[in-house]
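=== Structure Prediction Worksheet ===
Name of assembly: unnamed complex
Input type: mixed (protein and possibly other molecules)
Chain count: two
Listed entries:
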Amino acid sequence: MDGFPILSLMLLVPLVGAAICFFVPAQTARMVALVATLVNLLLGVMLWAEFDIGGAQWQFVERAEIFAGFSYALGIDGIALMLIMLSVFLMPICIGASWLSITKRVGEYMAAFLMMETLMIGVFTAQDLFLFYIFFEAGLIPMYLIIGIWGGDNRIYASYKFFLYTLIGSVLMLIAMFWMVREAGTTDIPTLMATDFPAGAQNWLWLAFFASFAVKMPMWPVHTWLPDAHVQAPTAGSVILAGVLLKMGGYGFIRFSLPMFPEASANFAWLVFALSMIAVVVTSLIALVQHDMKKLIAYSSVAHMAIVCMALFSFNVQGLEGSMIVMLSHGLVSGALFLAVGVIYDRLHTREISRYGGLSINMPKYSLFFLLFTMASIGLPGTSGFVGEFLSLAGVYQISSWVALIGTTGIILGAAYMLYLYRRVAFGEQKNADAAAMPDLDEREWAMMLPLAAAVLWMGVYPESFLAPMRADIEWLDQRLEAAAPAGDAQLSAPDPEAAAEHHGEEAAAEGGSH
Amino acid sequence: MNDFSQSLQLIAAEEILTVVGLVLLVVAAWAGDKASRAISIAAVAALAACAFIAAPTLCQGLVGPERVAFFGQYSADAFSAFAKLLIYAAGGAALIVAPSFFGRVAAIRAEYPILILFAVLGMNMMVSATDFLSLYIGLELNSLAAYVLAAFLRTDERSAEAGLKYFVLGALASGIILFGMSLTYGFAGTTSFAGVNAALSGDLSTGALFGLIFVLAGLAFKISAVPFHMWTPDVYEGAPTPVTTFFATAPKVAALALTMRVALGAFGSQVDAWQQIVIFVSLASIIVGALGAIGQSNIKRLLAYSSINNIGFLLIGLAAATPEGAAAMLVYLAIYVAMSVAGFVVVLMLRDAEGNPVEAIADMAGLSRTRPALAWALAAVMFSLAGIPPLFGFWGKFVVFQAAVNADLIALAAIGIAASVIGAFYYLKVVKIAFFDEPAGVVSESGESGVDAAAHKVLLLVSCLFISPLGYLLTPWLGDLAQKAAAALLFVG
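=== Predicted Assembly ===
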């Protein structure tokens, strides 16, 4: 595989597919999209198989100086590899989810999704600062069209909000990038990651990047675009939004903010912690009172991403690994939950929770999958959610026990709103005749649910497969952060027993003296 | 310094334009309006010939005393060649789209291509001028042709109004420039840019400062920068659309190139005196252009505000006052011309069932279902104007803001780019109407056929390919040419 431009090929395949989709009739467009995404999945599997764990930090590197001011430079490390795998894994499922539910302007729809795939892979593979920015921003256009053309009733408002919010967040990052490039004299991301910027400037740069990634992530209080966008987008659009686009924020933190501005990251960790703590509690409580299934899952996404944020700024290996696993797990689980909502939405055309009920009677297989994904979202041991959340909170605990405490409440509240949702949808009596008459999963839906369920269980039972490629990169990041890492409040190392006994004795003596 | 015969060789392009223009005028007088198509073709050929003269000058980056003609009045350097090539392209586009538009209202006249040629001649003078006197002659030659063009549809009241407004306000601006020039001359004792630059170095007297401000204010009028922008929406809306295409592109290039030469050349020794003015004008143009566009219901008015907005971004490059900033402006100008041409060609191709032009934005509803190709072209133009990557419009903003950051104008860059989000709103609105709304049934579903329609399509295809992501492949080449041109602009010798 040496020298074979597999990353460029992965960018090219969906792009060519998109171009074809514009000109062919609906059914052909569906097939073209499915084939293109499956080819990319295959390429992704090959990428993973060829990835040399413990080898060079940056692999599959490609570089071509075909632009002025920046270069076409691609390359991945373990972190990017995992996120690319998530993207290529979810894409065929998205196409499958849109197979029947999208009936108007199919060619354009499939083209927009394939363009999305190119841009997502581009974000995770770009090794040039400005190339990254172009891919990062370009994703707005297809997503704007997907929400605006194929979305729900309030799609226009949601599409504007999505576009303008994320654009405002990103533009200041561009100015910060100009400054960094001027200071460092290069646009190469690996070089910039090892560049020590002056401490005073780091704060400004960090804030500019934070503005962008916080909106993408999304963090409280700039999360309000997300429930609108998720609810109004078609099912596959929600899957890709929750599954991959939100991860761009987390990827931005782990690729840019943390390694490039370690001191500023430590200075502003309190800000991230404060916002994340508020987000975990507030959005979980909001999720608890939702009547709309998609909105509930959207708010749960905000809560989960807040755990990712906390863990990213824990400055230790557990926290960083945990945040990556939560991102991957959330990508699978929230995608699966949106699909589960989509399955019943396709049958009844409503997202009102109260219109369903007792689905476990007439749709037992569906209820089984829904239960699995609900449990994974809560973080039941054996599912991917548990691994990620446990590692994350263990990491956070080392730096601040208070933040870990509040973060854990989020898990409890998460269990509350997810179980409450599940009870109302799947259990209880069948109070709506039309909901009671819905048929169970068909083959297409099986084919979408099964791989997701398998991946969730795999990640829950044997997370090593996913952690191994990232381990070296996270260790590198941990070392890079070591000098700046703030001291934690919890002293986790077991104290020397003798010293402790002596200390205890002294204390006892002092106490005795005072008596 | 060149003697007279060498000077005449340097202005070969202007000679071609003059002679061809005059000959065609005689032909038009004898053959009448029947010959207008032939005259248009001849005019396009003349512009192409001029482009062949300008191209080598630019590619070789020629500059220096041997490129100066008529004893310091005129310079045929790489900078002027860059601007001239853009002007020729824009003039050619305005000629190509005209017959179909005027033919339908039976207003096709042989004078149109000739007036375009004379306007281009005036603009050639503007971008090559290295003396306030030749500057003024070029400016007036261009303006007189432009006033007539704005009022070209004699039977249309809006067109007559546009012509009159353009004339009155344009004449006022010319007067302001002339007043500023006379003050500058009084304090510098010379009208040549190099002489003024040398005379004004050191402390600037109040009188000379007034001269500088009046000259810049007049030029701001010509480039329709805030606060001298009020005429733009009315003139853009009232003028026939091919003429608007022309106004939005060529005179903008010429006036901006002229502004660059005056600011960086004649007043190049007094950057501190004008930098804050340019910063204010630039931010005001970005914000007013963006806010003004939001309420517009006519696509031509919207594009007028969009051009005000774009001028603001261009002036950020001028505010940097560095060679990098100048090169960035030229790159932006090239992309801006392509975006404007593509945008106006789309507008020209929008016809209702009777073949009347459609200008109301609301009538474009559901365009993506009735005319998908046209709708995607429109979306590409809008996203490109908004500066969203991967479209090429982003690159123009990219280089301009990079130049500003590298010149330590970080606050200006940050405010400017944040204000660009306001602009994104109305560009999105157009995309929303064309893509998300139900078809309004106004725009005719079938496009026209014939030579003119094919010419429109080719023009649209070429400009859309340029603003598509493929445009990024041109960045090394474009950047190189712009750098040569900027080096010629700031050549001191």
